[in-house]
Amino acid sequence: MLLEAPSPYRAAIAERIAPAWRMPLLRLALAWTAILVSFAADWAEMVRQWWNISTYNHILIVPVIIGWLVWQRSHELAKLLPGAWWPGLLLLTGALFGWLLGDISGTATISHLALIMALQASVITMLGPRVAWALLFPLAFGLFLVPIGEELVPALQMITAQITIALTHASGIPATVEGVFIDTPVGLFEIAEACSGVKFLIAMVALGTLVAHVCYRSWTRRAVFMAVAIILPILANGVRAWGTIFIAQSQGIAFAAGFDHILYGWVFFALVMAALLAIGWKFFDRRIDDPFIDADKLRSATWLARLDRWNGNGWALTGAVLALAWIHIAWSAQARDVEAALPDEIGLVEVEGWEAAALKQTYPWHPRTAGYDHRLITSYRDEQGRVVDVVFALYAAQEEGREAGSYGGGALPLETEWRWLSASDAPVGASGVRLQALGTHQRVAYTWYRHGEWTGSSRVRLKLSNMRDRLLSDPQPTMMLVLSAENTPTQDSETVLADFLQSTGPVSEWMDAMARLD
């Protein structure tokens, strides 16, 4: 064990740690403290998400699991000699540079992932590659600390809808599906974001990964078990949604909704988790006393011996960890000051055959444009009375809370009655979506982003362009344009939008004109 047998007089913890491990563990603790304190705001945001967002509540026990995994290896770890390893600084530099890119572009997922990787790189730097290899799985399991997965919601909604409609038809209930809406004899059902099953899937993947490692030795069995751990919760979520619809046919929607909440919130998850473990139980091939690592093999591994030649001074590397953290923090502060010069005001541009008009919508629709510097919201109307709604936003820079391409931003406003219905054909360079509210109001929306000379709909491209701006101190303004039209008895959304775009000319030039950029 890492801890020596305690003396009869209850020795202090420091005295119970094997002598060869005391200084390396102290230096690792200092390195981790430097990373945790230096980037405290990011860690606090991660913890806030773990605590407040139900999708990530399971992450609260991940640190405990990691500690348990390390403890299970402690007897074998004690046979290894840890040592500082300077190439680990290269990994740490890469991780901190990733944090920098995420921080200056407002991409929290990247910055959070990078900080977890910085802790992992610190282990390699302070304890060496031999110990890090022995701790490979606990270190890798740390990736589950990153709050990620809500981006899967739209895809999971569609998958759940398709499973549900298939089961609904199989059970003899006449129904039709359009996007995430299922119309049945007793009413219209929506596979809402909360019903996508994303929180269930993310937690099951983490559980499946742990069980596959702890309970199996065969990689084939591990792969099969992980496949079941991914597929089972997706199928189960479809069954749950179908069950709600099935019960509603005889008991009413209100009863079915209440039953679904109780069953899914308190019972269903536990039952599916138990089913997963029951499926895998008879195939477990790791004995309870099998060690997770073999220290003798690690000590004699020649490839690890070759890496030992790059050992370094532990205290010098500890200081380097702190220095690298503050270099990247200073770089981020400097890069965040890079913003494009903007005009004092922006304005509408004349469109042949159309004139600006006050907003008049059958149901309110206001796209989310977080943190804009200038914004226009208006409508254009032609002689036939057809209407196109226009939302244009201009940004001097992109960062957290101030993003044109942020999750939840753009044509589909979150926390409203508007729902994603389906994708829509869009002009080249734009993304198109069909939206629906309250089961009756429909509209089509096209979205473009413009940065420098580029115009398109790729959020990844937009992020990369803004990263480049701030790293090279070459700021360019960012624009977002959303055009939308309602489906009404007097107009077809896509036809109206196509005619409007024929009149505006090239979208990039039209956006520049509204932004008053020469």
Describe what you observe in this structure.
This protein has helices at 13-16, 19-38, 40-52, 62-72, 74-77, 88-105, 108-127, 129-134, 136-141, 153-170, 198-215, 219-251, 253-281, 295-300, 302-307, 314-336, 459-472, 493-504, 507-515; strands at 176-178, 181-184, 187-190, 354-357, 374-382, 387-395, 418-423, 431-437, 441-451, 454-456, 478-486. With 518 residues, it is of the alpha+beta class. The strands form 2 sheets. Strands 4, 5, 6, 7, 8, 9, 10 and 11 form an 8-stranded antiparallel β-sheet that branches. It starts with 12 loop residues before the first helix and ends with a helix. It is found in: Cell membrane. Residues 320-508 form the Methanolan biosynthesis EpsI domain.
Average pLDDT rating: 90
How many discrete domains? 3
Instruction: Look at the helices and sheets and give the structural class.
Output: alpha+beta
Could you describe the largest sheet, including whether it forms a barrel?
8 strands, antiparallel
What percentage of amino acids are in beta strands? 5-15%
CA-CA gap between termini: 70 Å
Quaternary:
single chain
Number of strands: 11
Q: Note the overall shape.
A: flat
Low-confidence stretches: 4-11
The number of helical runs is 19
* Residues in helices, as a percent range: 40-55%
Radius of gyration: 28 Å
Helices and strands, in order, run as HHHHHHHHHHEEEHHHHHHEEEEEEEHEHH
Protein name: Exosortase A
Pfam family, one: Exosortase_EpsH
Transmembrane segments: 25-44, 50-71, 83-101, 107-124, 131-149, 223-243, 263-284, 314-333
InterPro entries: EpsH-like, Exo/Archaeosortase_dom, Exosortase, Exosortase-1, Methanolan_biosynth_EpsI
